[in-house]
Amino acid sequence: MNNTTDPTKLTRLHELSGLLPREIRGQSHVLPRISSVVRRGELGLTKPGRPRGSFLLLGPTGVGKTETVVVLTNQIFGAGQLFRFDMSEFQNQEALGLLLGARLGEIGYLGAVREKAAEGSLLFDEAEKAHPRVLDILLQLLDAARLTVATGQTLDFSGFYVWLTSNIGSAELMSLQHSNEATLERHVLTRAQQSLRPEIFARVNEKLVFHRLSYEHQLEIAEKFLSREIEFLASRGHALELDASTLPFLVRKGFHPKLGARPMRDAVEKLVGDAVTKCLLEGRTACGTLAVDEIRDCLVVR
Length: 302
Ligand SMILES: Nc1ncnc2c1ncn2[C@@H]1O[C@H](COP(=O)(O)OP(=O)(O)OP(=O)(O)O)[C@@H](O)[C@H]1O
Ligand SMILES: [Mg+2]
Known about the structure:
Helices cover about 45% and strands about 15% of the residues. The chain has a 5-stranded parallel β-sheet, sandwiched between helices. A 3-stranded mixed β-sheet has the order 8-9-10. A two-stranded antiparallel ribbon has the order 4-5. The radius of gyration is 22 Å and the shape is globular. The termini are far apart. The chain is built from 11 helices and 10 strands. The chain has helices spanning about 5-25, 30-40, 65-75, 95-100, 110-115, 130-145, 180-195, 200-205, 215-235, 245-255, 265-280, and strands spanning about 55-60, 80-85, 120-125, 145-150, 155, 160-165, 205-210, 240, 290-295, 300. The chain folds into 2 domains: about 5-210, 3-Layer(aba) Sandwich (Rossmann fold), CATH 3.40.50; about 215-300, Helicase, Ruva Protein, domain 3 (Orthogonal Bundle). Magnesium ion binds next to helix 3.
């Protein structure tokens, strides 16, 4: 048997430990644990008859849980290999039929995934909201990586990573503003264990609590999106520099206490785009310093 790993796969794995912290800020306590499971999974060290790896990602909204799955799946498998299911849409009995087929001959959403791909990521958001029969399916996936669809076929999901996400226990985090991260983590894990089935909780390889984003990390995220925008504009011939007030302004506009960094990407694109558009419409080139106009509450090119 040939046990050497495909060199392209090796390169992708080597790049992962640098890529994740570059893309996902303020979560350095969980990223190495994710990389470690994925390295084992990609090197064929997972137990047979199990998914390549499984994770329960916990923590508040907009702090990078889904983004981590997106970045990682693209890096390991390329585009189009992430399959997402929002469990709030699978809360009733019919959900089972949607996932595995309701009538003879149907393969359901999961059958369709398997027809399309032999490997990738299956992401189940808001896992705790799934109907109990759907949780049975998740348990079977975690336990045996095999599911039987309405056609009678048994499908093999051992080429997939299974990701469950949940905000369980994180709403209260807002009222526990001054607790340290270790206390918050314990609180979220306890609440998740109570809400999800103990078998599910026990089966996942890693249970990880994402932290709230500190102000420093909010600034880093703003900078990440802004440098991308500036790079794009440079490729169109517009040379922009930053002023010290730009990033704090972007955090004010792009970070929301309840939504986390979710609005950041759009805020940066819109605010920088508006500033550049204004310049061009006035017949000026969009080269100069990107600064804050406090009166008009926008960015301008000076
Ligand atoms: N830690 C982070 N580093 C970089 N970008 C982030 C981070 N957290 C959030 N973002 C930005 O915010 C967007 C939304 O984050 P994401 O979808 O990962 O939230 P989530 O944690 O999955 O929240 P939810 O629990 O509501 O699903 C991302 O697409 C990304 O642009
Ligand atoms: Mg998410």
